[in-house]
Write a structure and sequence with these properties.
By secondary structure, the chain is an all-alpha fold. It contains 4 helices and no strands.
């Protein structure tokens, strides 16, 4: 679950950097500062994905990215794709963790050593 979430947030970090490059010439500096804050929080939330707070912060950041699509309208489509990937990371990650827990809960079978033939 953590690997998928960190991959999504890492790619969104790059996307936000490209969006800020598009916004730097035609918008005021407060939009660039907002972009840097969101980028910093993405890196911070990647570190927090071991805990529930990282997933909550990552979900909030999805909406912060959606708000940036008012500055760069072409980001709206990309943001919808990444929101879908974020939801998929949560769903697939939970299923993977449940399968792993089931495997760890199952007792290990000891293979029986073959008996030597009678001489």
């Amino acid at each position: 679950m953590r690997v998928l979430g960190s991959a999504v947030l890492g790619m969104e970090f790059l996307i936000m950097g490209f969006a800020m490059l598009l916004a730097k010439d035609s918008h005021e500096s407060s939009t660039i500062v907002y972009g840097f804050v969101v980028m910093f929080l993405m890196i911070y939330s990647i570190r927090l994905l071991k805990k529930r707070t990282g997933w909550i912060l990552g979900s909030i950041l999805q909406f912060a990215m959606a708000a940036y699509s008012f500055v760069v309208p072409s980001m709206a489509i990309v943001n919808l794709l990444f929101m879908g990937l974020w939801v998929a990371a949560i769903i697939v990650g939970r299923k993977g963790e449940a399968a792993r827990a089931a495997l760890l809960a199952k007792p290990r079978e000891n293979p029986v050593a073959p008996t030597p033939p009678d001489a």
